[in-house]
From TrEMBL:
Superkingdom in the source lineage: Bacteria
A family per Pfam: VitK2_biosynth
Keywords: Lyase, Menaquinone biosynthesis
Record-listed E.C. numbers: 4.2.1.151
Keyword RNA-binding: no
CDD domains: PBP2_Sco4506
Signal sequence, renumbered to the chain: none
Enzyme class: lyase
Protein name: Chorismate dehydratase
Catalytically driven reaction(s): chorismate = 3-[(1-carboxyvinyl)-oxy]benzoate + H2O
Listed PANTHER family: CHORISMATE DEHYDRATASE (PTHR37690:SF1)
Length: 291
């Protein structure tokens, strides 16, 4: 790979990651950095294939190839309880869903495997699964329940209330918290190791830009709330609560909850190996620390 080309930074194209990226681009000059917006599954593939250098990515996809990546410290999309955008919609009673069929979104591995963990270990159930494009009506035509994530899940939850469809809705973040006592981390920011080794200064610039964006966004949510209302609809009160109920740090509590998720995934054979999280250090000489 040519060292002269711009560093490519992937951005999950969902509102839940906006605080980390909203102000970052103004600190990352286009001659040195290029931002690409995609859904989580597409970013996961691009990082694995070397098409993207640094990206926000699903936690599960990070775990699958954790030996190849370093995490940018204290950046995540997490929830201590309900997440409001990782939702299971049920058209039948829960007891029927547990022995029935669930349609799963094709856009994020973390939520899909969280659902499988909760079904197997919490409910002691083994429903069948089908993967589909994220359309609630199409999914419920094929299955007893449907898992949606991100902005699609938010719009589906609004439509469910507006049309009085009567679908029961389970927030997987809230269910995980009530079961384990931990919050859940849905996305992280990772860099390919060879990129961090080759150009640690550029990676540091990205880390500082994302961190500054996170801090500025959380000091004043109004610009994000206004943007969400304009682009996605809904009321300011909804989006203010939405952003406040998410958490964007990745401290010891978030790491403990995610480690438990990884352990359960390994226990169930969803991950073939245990996961040790390694972090990029914010200085010129690259160091790796184990958590």
């Amino acid at each position: 790979m040519e060292t002269s080309r711009p560093l490519t930074v992937g951005r999950i194209d969902y509102a839940n990651v906006w605080p980390i990226f909203h102000y970052a681009e103004e600190r990352l000059p286009t001659e040195r950095f290029r931002i690409e917006k995609r859904v989580p599954a597409a970013l996961n593939r691009a990082l694995k294939q070397g098409e993207i250098d640094i990206t926000s990515m699903s936690s599960f996809a990070y775990a699958e190839h954790a030996d190849r990546y370093l995490l940018l410290p204290d950046l995540s999309v997490s929830a201590k309880g309900r997440v409001n955008s990782i939702l299971l919609f049920l058209k039948k009673p829960l007891e029927d869903v547990l022995t029935g069929r669930i349609a799963m979104t094709a856009t994020s591995a973390t939520s899909v495997n969280l659902l499988k963990i909760l079904m197997k270990l919490y409910y002691r159930a083994e429903p069948s699964y089908v993967t589909m494009e994220p359309s609630l009506d199409d999914m419920l035509a094929e299955a007893d329940a449907a898992l949606l994530i991100g902005d699609t899940a938010i719009h589906a939850s609004w439509a469910n209330k507006r049309k009085d469809r009567g679908l029961a809705v389970i927030d997987l973040g809230a269910l995980w918290n009530s079961w384990t006592g931990y919050g859940m981390t849905f996305a992280l920011v990772a860099v390919r190791k060879e990129v961090a080794e080759r150009d640690p200064e550029a990676v540091t610039d990205v880390l500082r830009a994302l961190t500054a964006s996170k801090e500025r966004s959380l000091r004043d949510l109004k610009p994000l709330v206004d943007k969400a209302c304009a682009q996605l609809g809904g009321e300011p009160s909804y989006w203010d609560r939405y952003f406040r109920e998410l958490h964007y740090n990745f401290g010891s509590d978030e790491q403990a909850g995610l480690s438990l998720y990884f352990d359960y995934a390994h226990q169930l054979g969803l991950l073939p190996h245990e996961v040790r999280m390694r972090f990029f250090e914010d200085h010129a000489a690259l160091k790796v620390k184990n958590e």
